[in-house]
């Protein structure tokens, strides 16, 4: 039941925050949550309660832009040479054969406003569209596919995502709310949403969430996650764990920085 393994890297809000934390008896020293992230993630390794594992690695250029992202199955590389665009190619690790292509159009602030995804044979798989608030945080994320569509709306308060609403084919489907420990700085580049964990998807959130609760339109809890963290002396998250009280499933991840 590894929930993240086979999902696309759509760092929609739930995805971004569901990756989080560590031992419950860990004491986290207070840090300044307004301090910007200066170190970049190099590698994350996860272990799951079902015995499976997952690996993610990141590389950047001298401007701090993501140049490659890899997991157990695929490697995605990024090209910034075309004005007002980001182009990306995903290849299978084992064969180095391309299986997906991405063409991202940037707005006047250099942020992705549209991401068109194509399959290896040239067919369009789907399209993502993004809007941002005045501070540079993602405000909406919309997915358009052949057989369905969705739209997520995000509420940002004081630099943190407080809740987001998911609409399926223009009908409200569910709502997720977030809780925080304001002493835990977001050092993992989470932005609440976006297809990759990359600066082209806007401003990073200030803190890392400690709990997420998803409810359906009747108010019934459908998904509940508790998150905990270990940090180093500078406040960088070095380990995180997320637990699912409804099922007993857990994930534990270690983080290395460049």
State the gist of this model.
The protein has 258 residues and is mostly beta strands. Helix content is 2%, strand content 53%.
Keywords:
258 residues; mainly beta; 16-stranded antiparallel barrel; 1 helix; 53% strand; globular; disordered N terminus
**Order of strands in the sheet with the most strands?**
1-2-3-4-5-6-7-8-9-10-11-12-13-14-15-16
* Overall morphology: globular
The number of distinct β-strands equals 16
- Beta-strand residue fraction: over 45%
Low-confidence stretches: 1-37
Kindly state the mean pLDDT as a whole number? Answer: 88
Gyration radius, in Å: 18 Å
Secondary structure class reads mainly beta
Helix content: under 10%
How many helical elements? 1
**Biggest pleated-sheet summary:** 16 strands, antiparallel, barrel
Topology as a string of helices (H) and strands (E): HEEEEEEEEEEEEEEEE
Cα end-to-end separation: 31 Å
Note down, in words, how this protein is organized.
The chain is mainly beta. The chain contains one helix and 16 strands. It has one helix at residues 13-18, and strands at 41-48, 53-60, 66-70, 74-79, 85-92, 98-106, 112-119, 124-132, 138-144, 149-157, 160-168, 171-185, 207-216, 221-231, 237-243, 250-257. Strands 1-2-3-4-5-6-7-8-9-10-11-12-13-14-15-16 form a 16-stranded antiparallel β-barrel. Strand 3 (66-70) and strand 4 (74-79) form a beta hairpin. The chain is globular, with a radius of gyration of 18 Å. It starts with 12 loop residues before the first helix and ends with a strand.
């Amino acid at each position: 039941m590894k929930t993240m393994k086979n999902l696309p890297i759509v760092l929609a809000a739930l995805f971004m925050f569901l990756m989080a934390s560590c031992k419950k008896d860990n004491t986290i020293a207070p840090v300044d949550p307004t301090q910007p992230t200066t170190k970049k993630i190099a590698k994350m390794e996860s272990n799951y309660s079902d015995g499976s594992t997952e690996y993610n690695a990141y590389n950047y250029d001298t401007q701090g832009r993501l140049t490659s992202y890899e997991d157990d199955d695929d490697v995605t590389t990024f090209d910034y040479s075309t004005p007002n665009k980001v182009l990306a190619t995903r290849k299978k690790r084992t064969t180095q054969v391309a299986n997906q292509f991405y063409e991202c159009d940037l707005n006047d602030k250099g942020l992705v406003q549209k991401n068109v995804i194509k399959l290896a044979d040239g067919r369009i798989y789907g399209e993502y569209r993004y809007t941002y608030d005045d501070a540079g945080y993602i405000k909406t994320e919309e997915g358009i596919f052949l057989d369905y569509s969705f739209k997520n709306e995000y509420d940002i308060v004081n630099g943190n995502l407080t809740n987001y609403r998911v609409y399926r084919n223009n009908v409200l489907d569910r709502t997720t709310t977030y809780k925080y420990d304001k002493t835990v700085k977001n050092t993992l580049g989470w932005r609440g949403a976006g297809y990759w964990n990359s600066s082209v998807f806007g401003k990073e959130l200030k803190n890392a969430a400690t709990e997420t609760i998803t409810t359906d339109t009747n108010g019934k809890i459908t998904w509940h996650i508790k998150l905990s963290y270990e940090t180093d002396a500078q406040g960088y998250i070095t380990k995180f764990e997320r637990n699912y009280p409804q099922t007993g499933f857990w994930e534990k991840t270690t983080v290395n920085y460049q």
